[in-house]
Write a structure and sequence with these properties.
Layout (H helix, E strand, L loop, with lengths): L3 H7 L2 H21 L3 E6 L2 E5 L9 H22 L9 E3 L5 E7 L2 E7 L1 H9 L8 E4 H7 L4 E8 L8 E7 L1
Parallel strand pairs: 3-6
Antiparallel strand pairs: 1-2, 4-5, 6-8, 7-8
Length: 170
């Protein structure tokens, strides 16, 4: 959620939680509608997984459809609630990960770990709002269904090699 820190500073915690819960509900519904798994809420972010724990045909397409559906709902929400309008950044990346229970014997959580996950998190820093930013591998898997705009190569925080990203055009 773009500007959530400013929102948290300007409103009481209960109001912030109520707005974030609306965001989480819209996002979760979109993920579930496209057979994804909501892995975690991280502050004002939703981490979703497609293609784990079960293999999923067209997982990248389903992930993009999920984001597109969510952005449609967000547009309706913003039109109906101009006083609570908010913008978001959506990012999808595809790659090899470790999927499984991570943690300690007393606190395990199913999640995914790996460079592909880290790159997805970094893609949320692109300036485009209310759009979908994807990595090159994801774009290769969805370009038969979605048009995209090449954003070029960029250096993502913590990575040594340039990373090519695309904006999905809805």
């Amino acid at each position: 959620v773009v500007g959530s820190t400013t929102m948290a500073e300007a409103h009481n915690p209960a109001e912030v939680a109520a707005v974030l819960n609306e965001f989480f509900l819209m996002c979760t519904n979109a993920v579930f509608a496209h057979d994804g798994h909501v892995n975690n809420f991280i502050g004002d972010e939703v981490m979703a997984i497609f293609n784990a724990p079960l293999d999923m045909k067209e997982h990248a397409v389903q992930a993009v459809k999920s984001c597109a559906s969510f952005l449609g709902e967000l547009k309706n929400w913003n039109a109906a609630h101009p006083e609570k309008k908010f913008d978001v950044r959506c990012a999808i990346n595809t790659g090899v990960v470790v999927a499984g229970n991570v943690g300690t014997p007393t606190h395990l959580k199913y999640t995914v770990l790996g460079d592909a996950v880290n790159a997805a998190a970094r893609l949320t820093k692109f300036p485009q709002v209310n759009s979908i930013i994807v990595g090159e591998r994801t774009y290769d898997l969805v370009k038969h269904m979605f048009k995209g705009r090449d954003l070029g190569e960029t250096m993502l925080k913590g990575k040594e090699k340039p990373f090519r990203a695309y904006e999905i055009l809805l």
